[in-house]
Amino acid sequence: MSIGLFTQVSSALAEPITSPKTCRVGIFVTSLRNFKFADKSFRADFRVWSVCPSKDLKPLESMQVIDTIESEEVDYQTQNKPNRTESFATKGDVYWSQRDVSAVLNQNWNIQNYPFDRHTLKIVLEESIQDVNGFVYTPDFKNSGYQQDMSLGGWKITDFTLQEEKSAYQTTFGDPELMNKKGIYSRLTVSIPIQRVKYISFFKLTAGLYVAFAVAMLSFFYETGQPSLVSARTSLLVGCLFAALVNMRAPESVLGRTESLTLVDQIHIVAIVYIFVAALATVLSRLMNERGQGKQAMWFDRRLLFRVLTISFIVLNAIVISHAAIVG
């Protein structure tokens, strides 16, 4: 029995270890658009190609785009081409295939530091049939890239990388040839960092808030010695507070819901607190007038609170905005 076992082990060791088949695969991105923060998605148009040493290898047919919401693939074609590269040992013809793809991809946008946010868009292509023992991608670094003059609508591309990775799943998907409990497949990952270069949308979202704060600060020039002016000052501050609260909901339609405090949220919260402090100051100023301290109340409103609240609000805004711009 030991002799038979030794024979089986020797036979297994004698079998040649074959390397997986491969094709040179590249991608060229022609369009990036529809950056939707609320829907957590973006659209990419790109052309993907493969150069294979044999006709039986067809990676574009078994390739899938990972993490897509929807995709459309068109113009698949294969041509025989003479091999003038050093990618393959064969000196005969190689098989060049192309496919155009338009896909809507999931994107987890981090808008905490909006409008100074930076993101990395990813396009992931994966072999869906043969595991890494049978086939792997060889990235075509030289020819892959993106259209330099594409319009990104207020964004700019800061880099482009392409790398081959191995993706492991805790299943073989029922493949009877795989003996392990997990399947490992070759994938190509395209990473495209982008950075915002236009900030008009930020000013649109915060302009109403800043106006409400400015009006609230002007309320300090209403004398609280006259009941009619106290009522007008109180009504003005209530209107400013309501405007700030309503304006705080506006970014959700543009940026989507998030559980973290964004820069826009921080600015709104600070402004709401300051307006509420101005309302409390109105009550205190009125009480001072009722005690016959009218001049002190006027000094308290116009010389102290107006200056302290206005300057500190500007300083706090400069701090949080500068921090967001640095962190990105």
Structure description:
The chain has 328 residues and is an alpha+beta fold. The chain contains 6 helices and 11 strands. The protein folds into 2 domains: 178 residues, Acetylcholine Binding Protein, Chain: A (Distorted Sandwich), CATH 2.70.170.10; 128 residues, Methane Monooxygenase Hydroxylase, Chain G, domain 1 (Up-down Bundle), CATH 1.20.58.390. The strands form 2 sheets. Strands 1, 2, 4, 5, 7 and 8 form a 6-stranded mixed sheet that branches. Strands 3, 6, 9, 10 and 11 form a 5-stranded antiparallel sheet that branches. The radius of gyration is 32 Å and the shape is rod-shaped.
Keywords:
single chain, 328 residues, alpha+beta, Acetylcholine Binding Protein, Chain: A, Methane Monooxygenase Hydroxylase, Chain G, domain 1, five-stranded antiparallel sheet, 11 strands, 39% helix, 31% strand, rod-shaped, disordered N terminus
Describe the protein's topology.
Layout lengths: L1 H13 L6 E16 L4 E12 L6 H4 E3 L2 E15 L10 E14 L11 E10 L7 E5 L5 E2 L8 E3 L3 E9 L13 E14 L3 H19 L8 H29 L7 H28 L3 H34 L1
Parallel strand pairs: 1-7, 1-8
Antiparallel strand pairs: 1-2, 2-5, 3-6, 4-5, 6-11, 9-11, 10-11
